[in-house]
Amino acid sequence: MNNMKLGVNIDHVAVLREARVVNDPDILQALYVACESGADQITIHLREDRRHIQDSDVKNIMAHSKVPVNLECSINKEILNIVSDIAPHRATLVPEKREEVTTEGGLDVFTYEDEVAFAIEQLHDSIIPVSLFVDPSIEAMEKSKDLGAEMVELHTGTFSNLFNMLNSSLPHSNHSVKEMELPRYRLSELLEESLEQIKNSAVHANKLGLEVAAGHGLNYHNVHEMMKIEEIVELNIGQSIIARSVFTGLKDAIKEMKKLTTR
Description:
- By secondary structure, the protein is of the alpha/beta class.
- The chain contains 11 helices and 8 strands.
- The protein has an 8-stranded parallel beta barrel with strand order 1-2-3-4-5-6-7-8, surrounded by 8 helices.
- Helix 2 packs parallel to helix 3 (55-64), helix 4 (77-86) runs parallel beside helix 5 and helix 10 (239-248) packs across helix 11 (250-260).
- The radius of gyration is 18 Å and the shape is globular.
């Protein structure tokens, strides 16, 4: 069975910082703690609206990280130029809308086929490997391979929402997922279907020669389901780790997740 890499997304440390527009908490301190606590990779997202990670953050993290940096970005030309100049260890192309709270769904590699192809070509010209953040489907795996990506990251948001609606207090909170307010038997069926889609997509991508990662909404309670899929070799997790760190400290939060994601 393949070893699982844990990519720790530290965007939410910058979210806290930007909430008060002060340099506290320090993103570099988060980087150092993550590296020391077992993170195999640092993941950050340079959004077009710069709502959390800033250009200077990316440069500082690249200069000081002791582990590889996975830089998530849109297919916006201005952003691609910045990423090409910075040359992270990997670029992950993601969809992006200004009005969203967080990334909603995978990159539509069919509607934006030409733009994605151009982005991959530009990044490859700068010797940057590319991963595509896509919804789990056989068609998306094949298109990702055709476009020239080296890796796919399967969007686990639907799975995570279904799991949480079925196994947590989420339905009784202000953050209940309205379209998933369904009978428990139906949530169970949909959860099994979502897991099957992720599994089948991972297997197919692996056969195509693509490396397979997964991420979005994964937490301490549902990550075990991803660990059962041996074709997935990397998980990128952020919000749940930073949320846990409020109570345990970042070091222990990362170590706990690392333990859960060790095969």
